[in-house]
Write a structure and sequence with these properties.
This protein is α+β, with helices and mostly antiparallel strands. 22% of the residues lie in helices and 36% in strands. Strand 9 and strand 10 form a beta hairpin. The longest helix has 19 residues.
Length: 440
């Protein structure tokens, strides 16, 4: 643990108690981030930032507030905390606000999550610039004469934090991240200028795709948008590509938050233990994956992180229940929100599945759309490829799918073998039958 950060957080907690807080939770974090982008073979953006912040949650006479500051000079911080406590006393009482019961701090895993890349300190400015250059060049080369513009970018960062509470919580996290990708615009028929992109994210550089592959994939995904047209409204099978699954799945997950359940905004509130999807639908929340982008040993309430099966073979097993809304509902807390979400992969590739489906649409992007967490109704625009006997025959765009989540997830018939690993949501491509795709 970083002793300097720990001592600052401990001092903040003690200062809050002396100022009149019955309870306090303080988090101090330091972060460094770098961003570089290239356009037309020269740097367009170069940014580097370092910051240190304090976030303090105060529980005062049955009242609650959360405050933050980046001025950590002790005299300024003392005044900030004392003023924050005084202001908290003016707020309305909330009987459900309290520090987490310390029993939920217990049982924390002692594993090393491997989130900190020891090689990060040796990552040079020259290497960052070279990666951005190569991504741009690869994108341009693959894109060919149709390219209007390309912007490549690389980002990375390091952070560590300490979280302490006046009732015994002590936590420490440290980690790094890397992001690389490109956006590309191409000339299509008439005045159409499709814009595509491709980005990858990881906690470590080892295992990161090479720069040429990242740029080439960004170009390929953009070129796939050329000639996209509507087809007639049709009921047919669809495949949602692995990296696009979270965009639709968000609508289902929203109804699993205790905040939405307590506020009568969840279509799943009364569905625990019931079948809400097909046997192919299993969703696991696993915060203990080594190197996972959302791995953690504890959540923001200090609750010890545990692997949980949220949906199993279509049956709703659990909700995301933080300490506050758990108290309001009278429910046992689990965790306030998801970490690494896993859909266990199947055994067949997308190509194999497409070949067996005959005619269908491979969805490679979503546009706009909305999902109502109260009713489960959802509607969203799609981009993708119409295929026949496994062979893509036409790009499609300006089309729409609309359904209710309680109906849609029962149409899931197969899970592919291709989990997308460059995200905290490790989802494979998903196959749905009998979906109405609206077009002409």
């Amino acid at each position: 643990m970083n002793k300097e950060l720990y001592d600052q957080a401990a001092w903040a907690v003690e200062t809050a108690k002396k100022a009149g807080a019955a309870g306090c939770r303080a988090g101090i974090a330091r972060e460094r981030s770098v961003e570089i982008s290239y356009r037309e073979h020269k740097p367009e953006t170069i940014k580097e930032a370092s910051k240190r912040t304090l976030n303090i949650e105060l529980f005062v006479e049955g009242r609650y507030s959360s405050q933050s500051t980046s001025d950590l000079r002790q005299e300024s911080l003392k005044s900030f905390i004392e003023n924050a406590v005084a202001m908290t006393k003016l707020l309305e009482q909330d009987p459900f606000r309290s520090l987490t019961d310390p029993k939920y701090y217990q049982g924390r895993a002692t594993v090393d999550l491997g989130l900190n890349d020891s090689a990060y300190k040796n990552y040079s400015p020259e290497e960052r610039h070279q990666m951005a250059k190569i991504i741009e060049s690869s994108c341009l080369q693959t894109g060919g004469p149709k390219v209007i513009s390309v912007t490549s970018s690389v980002q990375d960062g390091f952070g560590e934090s300490v979280l302490l509470a006046s009732n015994g919580l002590e936590g420490y996290q440290i980690g790094t991240y890397y992001v690389a990708g490109a956006q590309m615009t191409v000339q299509d028929e008439g005045d159409r200028r499709p814009n595509g992109y491709h980005f990858v994210v990881s906690t470590k550089r080892q295992g990161f795709p090479n720069a040429e592959a990242i740029g080439a994939e960004a170009a390929r995904q953009t070129l796939d948008l050329l000639g996209a047209k509507k087809i007639k409204t049709e009921t047919l099978p669809i495949i949602i590509r692995n990296q696009d699954v979270p965009r639709w799945m968000n609508g289902l997950l929203a109804a699993m938050y205790a905040s939405n359940i307590q506020q009568k905004r969840s279509f799943l509130a009364e569905k625990k233990g019931e079948k809400i999807g097909s046997d192919k639908l299993t969703i696991i929340d696993d915060p203990l994956i080594p190197g996972g982008l959302a791995s953690r040993l504890y959540d923001g309430d200090g609750i010890a992180a545990k692997k949980r099966t949220m949906i199993e073979a279509g049956v709703l097993k659990d909700f995301f229940i933080g300490w506050y809304y758990g108290r309001k509902l009278g429910w046992e807390p689990t965790t306030g929100g998801p970490s690494n979400l896993i859909i266990p992969p199947g055994k067949r590739s997308v190509a194999e599945i497409m070949n067996d489906l005959g005619r269908g649409i491979l969805i490679t992007g979503f546009i706009g759309g909305n999902s109502n967490s109260t009713t489960g109704d959802a509607s969203i625009g799609i981009l993708g490829k119409l295929f026949e006997k496994g062979v893509p025959v036409q790009s499609v765009a300006e089309m729409n799918i609309a359904d209710n989540h309680l109906n849609f997830w029962k149409k899931l018939v197969e899970v592919a073998d291709d989990p997308w690993l460059y995200s905290s949501w490790r989802t494979p491509s998903l196959v749905f039958k009998d979906v109405v795709v609206s077009g002409l």
